[in-house]
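job 3f2a | input accepted
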Amino acid sequence: MKQKIQSESASAEICSLGAELTSLSDKEGTQYLWQGDPAFWAGQSPILFPIVGSIRDKKAIVGGNKTCNMERHGVVRKQEFRLIDSTADSATFSVVSNAETKERFPYDFELQMKYSLKGKTLTISFTVINKDSEPLPFFVGGHPAFRCPLLEGESFEDYVVEFDQKEYANCPRPLKNGLVDMEHRTLILNNSKTFPLDRTWFSYDCQIFDQLKSRSAKLYNPASGRGVKVDFAGFDYLVVWSSKNGGDFVAVEPWTGLSTCNDEDDIFENKRGVKILAPNASKTLSYDVTLL
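job 3f2a | predicted structure (292 res):
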């Protein structure tokens, strides 16, 4: 099932499978969201929970004496969500733990995803509810991929990622096993706001910004001013990714944590950025995408 929401300036569609955003366009009909192509990447904007990225050998110790076993990005991407609330400009979806999720992540939880449009800004909210009798450790992350180039006649290299503050970004390197090498870094920004896009930056994998002061970034063409702005207060990490084989998209991904890093052990609660939710408690985190 797909649910459409709209404002006076934009519209969006969300699929109940994975509560995944599948369309984001302005009133003129310009589609900003990557539409998926298995030749490059079939996804569009998957929801990441309760991990972002990968854990070592897909396993970790959690809750002191239990084991979780998860594929990359967690357990809800292929789960059917239920629409629990909707208006003309908003939709809220819910998924609850089940036998399948508990086999991989041994907790009772509910995850609600709310999409709301105001003008040209889409707010994407994660609400995690601990339905278990034990504390719930978790991460959440967005993975929205945007068309790049956006308009005819443009090239990928016309675009930049521009942060709201000058940054010294010495980025850790992703490893082939999906983990993160914190010891070997690449200097991406040196007292600069602007990361010019070049496909060679993604010939290996993503770029991981783990020490940002900024909490806002624009993916846009400076010549036209067109693109998107992502505001990610509450998310400590930003991942920028495109497919190594040249897909016409860039994913701008707010994450609360990272894949397991090479200086971390395999205890889930010891991972960078982990959030711990008490029984019966809930926590909401959100980020905004504004069409430019």
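job 3f2a | The first strand starts at residue 2 and ends at 6.
job 3f2a | closed
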